[in-house]
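User: Some background: our group keeps a shared notebook of sequences we're curious about, and every so often someone picks one and asks for a predicted structure to add to the entry. Today it's my turn. The entry only has the sequence so far, pasted here. Could you supply the structure so I can complete it?
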Amino acid sequence: MLKNYEEDKNGLIFQIEKNKINYNVDYVNNSYNNYGPKVDNMSYLRYGFMSGVIQENINSILDVGYGNGSFLNICKKNIDKCYGTDISGYEIPKDCIFLDIDKIYNRHFNVVCFFDSLEHFDDVYFLEKLNCDYIYISLPECHYLSDEWFMGWKHRRENEHLWHFNRTGMKKFMKEQGYELICYSNIEDIIRKPVDLLPNILTGIFKKNK
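Assistant: Of course. Here's the predicted structure to add to the notebook entry:
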């Protein structure tokens, strides 16, 4: 294993010592607003995939790390209650409700989304505390072919991406947190091209055990 990284009991790879970056409005602008229509195209793709997999009436949704609000802007056209949380200070879209991160456990959501956000958390072992029916996750798929591969992998991003997931690890992690896998996909690779001829972005939808 590469220095300053460990693999946990579920097969997730995490950075040990870290000096986290500043997630502010400039970060959002650089991460989203410089990519033009590709961002909205991704949001429509995500919304369509969610609707097709869950196939239930979604009345409430929470986007954790909503970025520039593109996905919420699409959701609010079809979903009654749209919530978001983000530490950047970027304004949430009109008609959506902002929640501080410590307030997201106080209400029920049909779906909670983590799009390119879960890997940024200091600790990912908090999903069991969420009161929701489904969790929808999208993040880089880490294949860890070797230390050399991981060192040069474009998504490693030291001090920014603190956790790295593969399919087996994510399924074990989510099961421990109280969720069962419904569907895995690399659908976002339609827009976000594969890396090293390998699947790039891992998408998973999970249902909470009752």
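Suggested note for the entry: The mean pLDDT is 95. The radius of gyration is 16 Å.
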